[in-house]
Amino acid sequence: MDELKKKSAVEADKEIVFSKSIKAGKRIYYLDVKKNRKEEMFLAITESKKIVSGEGDDSQVSFEKHKIFLYKEDFEKFIGGLTEAIRFITDEQGSALPKQMGDQEEKEGTGAPLADEEIKIDIDF
Question: pTM of this prediction?
């Protein structure tokens, strides 16, 4: 049975055509573009959170994972909803986005952070 699970996991990895990981504190977000059996692409978003239980020599590390699958026919609605939710949070609590984006852009050499109202998500297939 374990061999079947391992084989399935290896086969699942073969269908990944693009992958991006985003480290954010105790969490890592994985954006994997995969192909289904019909060769149609979709986006698998995985949140992985490190969980440490116990203390000292008795501590154990595990990872809690959550996944969502996003299909291209839903991209526009998803991006619209995500943008609206982000805008609500930044209106209510202020934005950490310019600082983080500014840091990222400075690393990439552009230097200018995005304004609050400029939320850009570009997904091409």
Answer: 0.61
